[in-house]
Amino acid sequence: MSPRVAVLVPCYNEGLTIAKVVRDFREALPDAAIHVFDNNSGDDTAARAREAGAEVHAVVRQGKSEVMRRAFADVEADIYVMVDGDDTYDAASAGDLVACVAAGADMAVGVRRATGESAYRPGHVFGNRMFSAVLARLFGRGCSDILSGYRALSRRCVKSFPVLSAGFGIEAELTVHTLGMHMPIAEVATPYGERPPGSHSKLNTYRDGLRVLATIGRLYVAEHPLRFYGGSALVLALVSVLLALPLLFTYLDTGLVPRLPTAVLSTGLAIVAAVSLTAGLILDTVTRGRREQKLLAYLALPAPAARDRTSASTSNAPAASANHGSGCR
């Protein structure tokens, strides 16, 4: 039996493009259910999507993460295709993304390749590369385009993923979730086009860039609390020792502590270091328990029906990495 495929399209004021997006994905994935999630649009986005044949859902709480939280909760499918409604992503690449997930990947990322001068601005390219490098440095692995809004996801990935971020942090959070669970990730190069005339981007380069960076930092602390708080404790302890050594030598020579404020500061830093290490140990235990719960949710769901049953013994748990399917790497 072929896996059920659902296309999830979060939208905010995309009346100019949404009908074309729905038609293009209907042509690329004729058996897929197309769901448009209208996030308080002030134009005719919902009406145009409905006329084009999509199932339209209204999401009151503002923000892309709020939309995807509702989409992942409400839509039932074996494979989910997540794509923006601005007609910049290539619908023809959806088949390759779905094939990657059907072949064994839990997430297939559409790596953007600009087809026009203004499609993928240099500042956005630089920011994406920087964020990808930071993510790879902090989590040991990464992907080429962590901010791509074009992805295919397995049911196991979606239903074990608690959406906690706000705004445009959903892509980074999804990437960290799959990396933290050691899920197979694939990448598919896909054309990335310019917005049509009259359509405007909702992104603010600096504001949203800082939000994504803050999201990555928050996720690092949440996923690796012992590293963060343990590293902080080590730095504080070293500073405390460096401040205390001259006082110790003076005390051994004279029996006096002439710089009492420095002694108090050194003692305070040592106490804060001990508290930081204790917090790291406690939070690390909490994080392990949370990760085990997500893993149990992942294992409780079957793999897509199209997966090769000969590899079932290795697909019951997340793998370190994978390259599957035509066009996957």
Structure explained in plain terms:
With 329 residues, the chain is an alpha/beta fold. It folds into 2 domains: 5-222 and 301-315, Spore Coat Polysaccharide Biosynthesis Protein SpsA, Chain A; 225-294. Helix content is 50%, strand content 12%. It has 11 helices and 7 strands. The chain has helices spanning 18-28, 45-51, 64-74, 94-103, 122-139, 155-159, 170-180, 205-223, 225-254, 260-299, 312-315, and strands at 5-11, 33-38, 55-58, 79-82, 107-114, 151-154, 185-192. It has a 7-stranded mixed β-sheet with strand order 3-2-1-4-6-5-7, sandwiched between helices. The longest helix is centred in the last third of the chain and has 40 residues, at 260-299.
Index terms:
alpha/beta; 7 strands; Spore Coat Polysaccharide Biosynthesis Protein SpsA, Chain A; 2 domains; 329 residues
Topology of this structure?
Layout: E1 5-11, H1 18-28, E2 33-38, H2 45-51, E3 55-58, H3 64-74, E4 79-82, H4 94-103, E5 107-114, H5 122-139, E6 151-154, H6 155-159, H7 170-180, E7 185-192, H8 205-223, H9 225-254, H10 260-299, H11 312-315
Parallel strand pairs: 1-2, 1-4, 2-3, 5-7
Antiparallel strand pairs: 4-6, 5-6
